[in-house]
Amino acid sequence: MEEDHSLVPLLTQLDDLAKNILEVEVQCKRKDRYIPPHERRKCKDNDSRLVEETLLIILQKINHQEKVLEEMKENVKVLNQMIGSYSRSIQLIENLMSHVLPNLYPNKQEGLPSDTKVNPKIEFE
Length: 125
Description:
- The chain is mainly alpha-helical.
- The chain has 2 helices and no strands.
- It is rod-shaped, with a radius of gyration of 44 Å.
- 0% of the residues are buried.
- The mean pLDDT is 78.
- Residues 106-125 are annotated as: Disordered.
C-alpha cells in the first residue's frame, strides 16, 4: 500500500509528460517539424535579423526615391522658369512684329499675312 502512495506522484508526472508530448505532436503537425526550445531562439534571432535587413533595404530604397523626387521637383522648377522666359520672349517678339510689320507692308491695311480673310467670291444667301 505504501508503494501505491509513492507511485501516485510518479503517475501524475507521467500524465503531465504525456500531455506535453501531445502538445508537441500537435505543433509538429501544424508546422511540419518540431523545433526544440534551444533552437527556437536561434530561429527568432535569424528571423529578427532578416526582418532588420529587409527593413534596411526598404529604407534605402525610400531614401533613393526621395532623392529622385527632389531632383524631379528641381527639374520642374527649372522648366517652369524656362517656360516663363520663353513666354516673355514670345510676347516681346509679337510686340516688335506689330511695330515692324506696318512699316514692311505699308499698303496693306488688311492685317497680317497669316490672318484669315473672307472670300469675296462667295455669295451669302
